[in-house]
Amino acid sequence: MKSNRKTFGIIIIGNEILSGKTLDTNSHLICTELHNIGLVCKEIVTIPDIEKIISEKVNLFRQKFDFVFTTGGIGPTHDDKTSNAIAIAFGDLLTLNKEAKKRLEKHYSDDLLTNARLKMAYVPSRAKLIDNPVSIAPGFFIENVFVFPGVPKILEVMFKDILKKFKKNKKKFIKKIITTTLSEGIIGEYLADVQKKYSDLEIGSYPYFKKNTFGVSLVIIGETSKRVKEVCDLLISYLEKNNGNPRLF
Amino acid sequence: MKSNRKTFGIIIIGNEILSGKTLDTNSHLICTELHNIGLVCKEIVTIPDIEKIISEKVNLFRQKFDFVFTTGGIGPTHDDKTSNAIAIAFGDLLTLNKEAKKRLEKHYSDDLLTNARLKMAYVPSRAKLIDNPVSIAPGFFIENVFVFPGVPKILEVMFKDILKKFKKNKKKFIKKIITTTLSEGIIGEYLADVQKKYSDLEIGSYPYFKKNTFGVSLVIIGETSKRVKEVCDLLISYLEKNNGNPRLF
What is the per-residue pLDDT for A171? Predict the structure, then answer.
């Protein structure tokens, strides 16, 4: 699909995902929310807690995509390497952020603000903080890279706050769904023809199974209602002719 | 962690994951099962249904890792591009696999074996089939690259069959878990010291919240019981001294 839509990539950082200990749901949240306002996710990658791997991937992604989101690796322990990796990627240094320190001091009494916790107040010198109303230790962003913690409940609150900024520059796009009781094997060739003719649109085809029925959801995405409607009309007329019981959503 | 353990990477193919329509759980299944028999996942990547992107990523991964698993994109529609992308990656050609065709002919009556469905019998000429007892259309492998469909219920059956081959060459490793009621912020510095001293082991630290309690799970992984026991003894003694109520699993 040719498009002017802004792109993004997601970097999930954490051995716990790679070992199967934890199911990553953060990328799904970020993709869903940004897709809804017209951004396109080009790549999601999960990598281990290794500084060099993180900084190389951040440098690759920030050049390839308009925005980059990272999750994980900004906590207080030895396996939290993201902040320093981001500093390295930008040729920057970790420095004690006074505002972050102040917030942590307010949250933890003196004896609980350990060196390990204070580590969370060190961010790259050029970074700007992202508020964390749940566990206080902030995320941050630097240029087009947004750095979030990995705990889903905390990420969710912080991400939805950042999302407001993106919504301001929202680019509209049109999405329609057609369901049919015909299977992909039956309609596949026709769909391929339509996709070829309408290369400016994205036509996705997803089989579904629920209760005792099955069928296919066709998802049509484009930048103008006119083009999307043209394709929907074509598909519905084809499906009706072939007893495919099309329904438009 | 320095290791002789075999490595693998996973390539998840499909716009439906990148748009947030579908939550990927396939990589979690593969990681869990292979971690349990001692393999190490180095990278998971999710990419769109674009032939060039798929073949480039397959070529990168198959050189970097011992094994590569792909999911998605081998169905009957125009957005299923994986098989051809794999052929391109290996400098091979898609050819009609007689055995795959025979299975599809048996499964579908003549009028239902459409051209779109027959597309699923085309695999790279050097590929070997992976049986699909659910929906018949096979997966395949070529050298160290294993190609699976994206529908989780089908992938699960097919993957567990392949898993048997890996279990035969299983390399043992030792894993222990210690839980404590002390938080990461308290034990972080000590943990970092221990990790530095025991660089041949992997010490992971994962906060948990359940019901009204919280704490940390420490996961210690190594290749000999002796080394893992040494670290466990150290950590337990430290946690006991600091009223961290350690429990070993």
Answer: 65
| 3-class SS string, A167-207 | HHCCCCCEEEEEEECCCHHHHHHHHHHHHHHCCCCEEEEEE
The answer to whether A50 touches A18, Cβ cutoff 8 Å, is: no
Among A186, A187, A181, A185, smallest CA distance to A203 is for: A187
- B85-124 pLDDT tens trace: 999 999 999 999 999 999 998 888 777 888 889 899 999 9
What residues does each domain of chain B span?
A: 7-168, 174-248
Query: Are A46 and B45 inside 8 Å of each other by CB?
Result: yes
Tokens for B50?
């674009």
Nearest to A77 among B16, B24, B205 (CB): B205
CATH number for region A174-248: 3.30.70.600
- The 10s digit of each residue's pLDDT in A141-162 is 999 999 999 999 999 999 998 9
**CATH number listed for the domain at residues A7-168:** 3.40.980.10
Beta carbons of A28 and B46 less than 8 Å apart: no
Write the residue in A18, A32, A78 that is nearest to B191 by C-beta: A78
Count of CB pairs separated by less than 8 Å, A with B: 178
* Among A8, A18, A107, the residue to mutate for chain B (most B Cβ within 10 A): A18
For residues B77 and A188, the answer to whether their CB atoms sit within 8 Å is yes
User: What pTM was estimated for this model as a whole?
Assistant: 0.83
User: What ipTM was predicted for this assembly?
Assistant: 0.83
Of B114, B185, B203, the CB nearest to A189: B114
Q: Give backbone dihedrals phi and psi of A225, rounded to 5 degrees, phi first.
A: -60, -35
